[in-house]
Design goal:
- This protein is 74% helix and 0% strand.
- It contains twelve helices and no strands.
- One of its GO terms (molecular function) is ABC-type transporter activity.
- It holds the Pfam family ABC2_membrane.
- It is a multi-pass membrane protein.
């Protein structure tokens, strides 16, 4: 699809179209910032409601989990789950809207390679995920005293989680030709995997079969890694989680890059 552009202008001599990539990334960021009350404040309110509901439902009867109060244990899981959902939504809704609206050609026609398109879209997902993470983390530290034992680990897993989920959002949008198909993928795949990944509990409390399932779920390692970065304890080794999430990210990014390169299902 981009072969005719590859030998022209900025493609000459293998140059990178930095301006085009930056423009696409900027568009993706402005796209969610223009509706910040939905894309940033909405997740903050939802995360606060989760914590409030659990506080009311469980109250002081729930003992410590992993050596910390239950609400402190819960906060990084809810924050990461929210990051996952928003990073996925950013790329999936952008591409799906363009496909359904018939203006995806406006993105495909400029002299952008598959890699540059991928970087532009993922940049938007990462920006949205990171902003949501910062806002919710600040709120959790302020209201419930959530610690930050290993901030670098937390940052790495939020970043990798946003990249992986942004890529998965692109996968979903490539396959979805209608918004209800995209909603089905989100409701029946992404949300269950996020909820069943240790968001609200330690997987040590699960039966052996479900523990095995959790260890095959990459979302578990994202949430567990962020939890290690915040409260300093986790269900699995953060190094193992780093390897698993990095591997999954590379695989999904490679698949999406190939689809962008060939134009696979990019038009509704």
């Amino acid at each position: 699809m981009h072969s005719s552009k590859t030998d022209m202008g900025v493609r000459r001599f293998g140059a990178v179209n930095w301006l085009g990539t930056w423009t696409l990334a900027r568009r993706e960021v402005l796209r969610f910032l223009n509706v910040w009350s939905q894309t940033i404040m909405g997740p903050l309110v939802n995360a606060g409601l989760f914590l409030l509901i659990f506080t009311i439902a469980i109250g002081p009867t729930r003992g410590d989990v992993m050596g910390v109060p239950f609400m402190v244990f819960l906060a990084p899981g809810i924050m990461t789950m929210t990051v996952i959902q928003n990073a996925f939504a950013n790329t999936s809704s952008s591409i799906a809207s363009a496909k359904v609206g018939g203006n995806i050609v406006d993105t495909l026609m400029p002299p952008l390679s598959a890699l540059e398109l991928l970087v532009g879209y993922i940049a938007g997902a990462v920006a949205r995920g990171m902003i949501v993470a910062v806002v919710i983390t600040a709120g959790a530290m302020w209201f419930i005293g959530m610690p930050m034992e290993h901030p670098l680990w937390a940052l790495v897993f939020v970043l990798l989680g946003s990249i992986l989920m942004g890529a998965l959002g692109m996968v979903a949008a490539v396959f979805a030709n209608k918004f209800d198909q995209l909603s089905a993928i989100s409701n029946f795949l992404i949300t269950p995997l996020a909820f069943l990944s240790g968001t609200f509990y330690s997987i040590e409390a699960l039966p052996p079969v479900l523990q095995t399932f959790s260890h095959w779920n990459p979302f578990f390692y994202i949430i567990d890694g962020v939890r290690y970065g915040t409260i300093g304890v986790s269900d699995s080794s953060p190094l193992l989680g780093l390897g698993v999430v990095s591997l999954w990210s590379l695989i999904v990014l490679a698949v999406v890059w190939n689809w962008l390169r060939t134009g696979y299902r990019m038009k509704a």
